[in-house]
Amino acid sequence: VAASNEFADIPPSEQKALHARIKDEMSSASPPVQNKVAMTASLVTVITQAIHTDDQQMLNDILKEGCQPIQIETTVRRLEPGVALDLLHKCTEIFQKEPTRAQEVLSWIKEVVKTH
Fold first, then answer.
1. Buried-most residue among 6, 19, 102, 114 (CB within 10 A)?
2. Highest mean pLDDT among 10-19, 32-41, 52-61, 62-71
3. For the chain, what percent of residues have pLDDT higher than 90?
């Protein structure tokens, strides 16, 4: 499925800044409730960006952060079906190549299958 790159006009410095902000927020102990909604929306943006630009490192960083189950559920629910399918493919590739990362990716795989 060919997809247009809707992020082509965003400078790489801003893309990485958003990615870094999400990574920082995800690693904080317990962000306030209002930040959780914004973080989920940002996470959808970054996952979509990583899928469209085929940025494996960005996707790996998100998966390695260990999101809470509610974050995964909310994020996957907000993904467009095509992006969710691509995320499923990426996660299954990771799982097949590196079975030791099962804990990271299985919650994402399960949620995509359940939701979409």
1. 19
2. 52-61
3. 57
HEC letters along the chain: CCCCCCCCCCCHHHHHHHHHHHHHHHHCCCCCHHHHHHHHHHHHHHHHHHHHHCCHHHHHHHHHCCCCHHHHHHHHHHCCHHHHHHHHHHHHHHHHHCHHHHHHHHHHHHHHHHHC
pLDDT band at 64 (very low <50, low <70, confident <90, very high): confident
What are phi and psi for residue 98, nearest 5 degrees? -135, 80
Half-sphere exposure of 80 (CA within 13 A, CB side): 9
Q: How confident is the model at residue 11 (pLDDT cuts 50, 70, 90)?
A: low
What's the Cα-to-Cα distance from 18 to each of 1, 14, 22, 96, rounded to whole Å?
26, 6, 6, 29
Closest CA to 18 of 9, 10, 8: 10
Residue with tokens 């962000």: 31
Asked if 54 and 15 count as a contact pair (C-beta separation under 8 A), the reply is no
